[in-house]
Amino acid sequence: MKKFLDILSEEMGKAFATAGYGAELGRVTVSNRPDLCEYQCNGAMAGAKQYKKPPFVIAGDVQKALEGSKVFDKVDVVAPGFLNLNVSRELLKDYLNEMAGDNKFGVEAPEKVKKIIIDYGGPNVAKPLHVGHLRSAVIGESVKRISRYMGHDVIGDIHLGDWGLQMGLIIAELKLRQPELVYFDSDFTGEYPAEAPFTISELEEIYPTASGKSKEDPAFKEEAMNCTFKLQNGDRGYRALWKHILSVSVTDLKKNYEKLNVDFDLWKGESDVHDVIPDMVADMKAGGFAYESDGALVVDVKEETDTKEIPPCMILKSDGAALYNTTDLATIRERMKEYKPDEIIYVVDKRQDLYFEQVFRCARKTGLVGDETSLKFLGFGTMNGKDGKPFKTRQGGVMRLEHLIADINEEMLKKILTGREMEEAEAKETSQIVALSALKYGDLSNQASKDYVFDIDRFTSFEGDTGPYLLYTVVRIKSILKKYEESCGAADKLLCNAYTNDSEKNLMMQLTLFNSMMEGAFEEIAPHRVCAYLYDLANAFNSFYHETKILAEEDSAKKQGWIALLSLTKDVAETCMDVLGFSAPERM
Questions:
Q1: Cβ-contact 515, 450 below 8 angstroms
Q2: How far is CA 450 from CA 130, 140, 386, 484, in A?
Q3: Nearest Cα to 378, choosing from 142, 551, 574?
Q4: Largest CB tally within 10 Å, which of 329, 407, 448, 510?
Q5: Distance between CA atoms of 295 and 472, rounded to whole angstroms?
Q6: How far apart (Å, rounded) are the C-alpha atoms in residues 161 and 524?
Q7: What is the pLDDT of residues 147-204, one digit of tens each?
Q8: Residues near 386 by Cβ (< 8 Å), separated by ≥ 6?
């Protein structure tokens, strides 16, 4: 299905050609003066020099060529040569009915289906999720959903931090507390217990204790480093303990991500590439890319066109230990080998920009990826408190993500119960659905790279540019559709009428933008574009709703046309919500 603007531009291009000018001059855009017209074409201005004619004359010739057009019902020439356009009622009606009959409302399947891997999440095991993990999860999930909606083959990978010093710290602390555990008996040859010797709560206490101890006790830190070395070199007992740590942590992580309606296709971590690092390093050396510098192994990644200093990418430290760079490069190598992706998108804090520039350049220079594979960095800004500083608890600490979710659920429940008659169980379930929209929309409505202020009062408001306002709009449409069905039966979704007033036309025109908006959101990796469209759609509907007595209309054909328009509006709005990662309840 063609995009609406493409249909208008094609018609305008034909008119330019008929009038004796280049069809490429017929590009139509949404008007920047909606008080004067709906769309505009500035091609006459662009063609004036080429054809050595005043733009007003060219525009007049094109206007004549458009007489009798079934696409435009109004074409005005405005000095010095602008073409102001309004679309025909029939075109608008027919386009919406075609949208309603299409399973993706006019979004066409891609010419080439891309294999895309999205790297988002990135938590360390044995540590609870905190507010710093929110943006990666929420943005990455939406990018994944948008990409899938556009018809691409997408894999979401959490990329766990599960192999570094934190593992050694936990094992060292456990050894101090429970030295009798069989995992520390080097002579043990039997089966290790199936159940972990700790709970998630105990594990979350052990890690910070061990981390703090390592900063004050050099001997303990040395022991933790030794435990890390033994783990990574295959100590049987330490590997069994590590598997317990991973199992307990991942179970808890899945529970918390589920609250955010976020899920991953792959639960891989740094440990998954540990065994391939030696071969990768050997290849980099053999290819003449990696060399020693102050004892460390590095690869130069600077380029002649650089205007700033780009340090070498370190592959191994002077003691031979791997770094994040090493595991990220090895992960790229394995992803190329196993999945052969066309794109890998990293959804990470924007402060990691230089790091990923080094990693991407190193991956290309050393042949881990070819020119046919795109490596993209989607850097996001910081979630701040009202003081403009990174969001923290009232005590000044980093807030756990589950506590943030609980707080916004509680605030939403208060608002749901205020002035509404609803059973407590239903109110609780509804408040969680609405709270999720408040949390996600509050984040996603901002351009990813920008910092934003987390304001629980504003985010949970039922008015303004918020998730609850959007949900309330959809719930209102559902209520109207339900009442219509109860009194008149099921409506025909393909019976949108020609508009009868300006607010109806505005809603119809907003709906026509859906497929081009989704395409733009995908190409620009920009969930905020979906948010902006959804907000404009909700405003357009509410203006129409307040000006039109829908269910009270006596003309049954007109009423059914309005119901079809509402049904399409609901379906498009819910599709937008779904790719953003939340949904609307049946009532609020």
A1: no
A2: 20, 15, 15, 44
A3: 142
A4: 329
A5: 62
A6: 28
A7: 999 999 999 999 999 998 999 999 999 999 999 999 999 999 999 999 999 999 999 9
A8: 453, 455
